[in-house]
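[audit] Reproducing an earlier prediction to check determinism. Same input, same settings, fresh worker. If the tokens differ from the archived copy the diff job will pick it up downstream; this log only records the rerun itself.
[audit] input (122 residues):
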Amino acid sequence: MLTWLLVALGGAAGAACRFGITWLVEVRSRPTPWGTFVANLAGSFLLGLLGGLGAALPGWVAALLGIGFCGALTTWSTFAHESVRLARTGPGGAARALLIIAATLALGLGAAALGWLLGERL
């Protein structure tokens, strides 16, 4: 029961954090979904860091931060929806969508790997 509560609390905090990031970043960046991009990179780095720390963390931290917080901070569905919406914005929209898709995948994997390496060294 405690694990469910930790995941829920972490998820609530992660979702609120993602909303705040999106609000702060996208006020200036319409129609490109930079807020989701930033949130996904931050979440990838943090989850990589937690993975790199591995057994050094108690299980409840993984539930709270890994599953709950990072799970809600990062979002595949919003990323997919915003990429399709961006592709439909008119001339150049498809190219911008492909660019942000490629950047999210490449930089997200890089952020996770960097976080993991850092976590292993801590």
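[audit] rerun output stored. Observation attached for the diff report: Residues 94 and 102 are 12 Å apart (CA to CA).
[audit] end
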